[in-house]
Design a protein that fits this description.
The protein is mostly helical. The protein has a single domain, classed as Hydantoin permease, CATH 1.10.4160.10. It is built from 16 helices and no strands. Helix 3 packs antiparallel against helix 9, helix 4 packs parallel to helix 16 and helix 6 packs across helix 7. The two termini are 36 Å apart. The relative contact order is 0.23.
Length: 363
């Protein structure tokens, strides 16, 4: 136990965790999202969204610095009674767990569509759920270490995109920006949800290095995700054009279908299967955050039991989301809640920290 208590998350652990948590299944639909909601050269919206996400990360880093690594829960509970915070904790538990659930559900539905059309999606989801639960029960430190290997496997796929240089035509990008887009507000929320995942760093403070330098990993992870999103979206814009992208369900899969190898057919299905490792980490981190929130209300129940209970409940809720359309609709609602939490929680914590500092001389 003493060895475990000294274990800490460092910059590279956090960087890889943020990168893999942000890198969701949305990568396969992001070019369509950019083309549909932002029109010509919609890839540029990724830069705007990334800057806003970086500002949110800055707010989190301020909480870490001012609070000296103290967890969000300890910060607020020293000032506000736990029974007052109970609705917030329950809301956080519900939002984070459902995001984790829908990440798996979305992956399972697409996997069923591509590879196993005769297999019920709930069976595929159950298999992924078991893998996520096994990873979740190992704890945050084991997840962070396993995640490094997962990330390296994903990054090894990056050179594949060099194969599309011959198909890329800069004329398809056009010279205009953000023309023929639809509902830019909805588009902004949808695209911003693609960057969500960095907010889990807000709950890593008590597990991270005592040095504030570990927050650099969050910035680095967000930067790498921005680069990958830009790379994929710009290539899709240059190969298909924004008009074609609007009518493609999964532009990245269509792009990968161009690849031909003598030893493998339908390379896009193989690469989508490899992407399971990202889904495992994304879902496990959201379920872990949900468990952390709920454990503050029921501290006497072991975290392993809470994790299993949360996944059990969300598994049955996922029955109601039978199609990708419904899943995306639910994601839309939950994304608004998640974005709200991502900004509200650090601001809330900063207000309490400032209030505590002002009250300190009078104690």
């Amino acid at each position: 136990m003493a060895a475990l208590s000294r274990e800490r998350l460092y910059t590279h652990h956090v960087g890889f965790l943020v990168f893999n948590t942000q890198m969701g299944v949305v990568l396969f639909t992001l070019p369509r999202i950019a083309a549909t909601y932002f029109g010509t050269n919609g890839w540029a919206a990724i830069l705007i969204v990334s800057v806003i996400a970086t500002f949110n990360i800055y707010l989190i880093s301020l909480v870490n610095k001012v609070g000296k690594g103290e967890s969000f829960f300890d910060i607020v509970e020293k000032t506000i009674p736990k029974w007052v915070l109970a609705p917030l904790y329950l809301f956080m538990t519900a939002v984070f767990s459902m995001i984790g659930c829908l990440v798996i559900k979305q992956y399972a539905l697409i996997y069923q569509l591509l590879i196993f059309p005769s297999t019920p999606d709930i069976v595929l989801k159950m298999v992924v759920d078991v893998l996520v639960l096994l990873l979740l029960l190992k704890g945050i430190y084991t997840i962070s270490k396993a995640n490094i290997i997962f990330c390296l496997l994903l990054l090894m796929l990056a050179p594949i995109f060099a194969a599309f240089t011959s198909e890329f035509d800069s004329v398809r990008l056009t010279t205009s920006f953000f023309k023929d887009g639809e509902n830019s507000v909805k588009g902004f929320i949808t695209m911003y949800s693609a960057f969500m995942g960095y907010e889990i760093s807000f709950f890593l403070m008590p597990y991270a290095s005592r040095s504030v330098k570990w927050m650099r990993g969050v910035y680095i992870g967000n930067f790498v995700v921005t680069f990958v999103y830009l790379l994929v979206t710009i290539i899709c814009y240059g190969v298909f054009s924004y008009v074609q992208l609007k009518h493609q369900s999964f532009p990245l899969l269509d792009l990968l279908a161009y690849l031909k190898f003598p030893f493998m057919e339908r390379i896009q299905n193989f690469l989508y299967s490899v992407f399971l490792i990202s889904v495992l980490v994304t879902a496990s981190m959201y379920y872990w955050t949900s468990k952390e929130s709920l454990s503050r209300l029921v501290p006497k129940i072991k975290g392993t039991y809470l994790s299993a209970a949360i996944m059990f409940v969300t598994f049955f809720i996922s029955y109601m989301a039978e199609t990708l359309t419904v899943v995306e609709k639910w994601f839309g609602y939950l994304s608004v809640m998640l974005i709200g939490l991502a900004f509200f929680l650090p601001v809330f914590a900063l207000v309490i920290l400032l209030f505590r500092k002002r009250s300190l001389p009078n104690v």
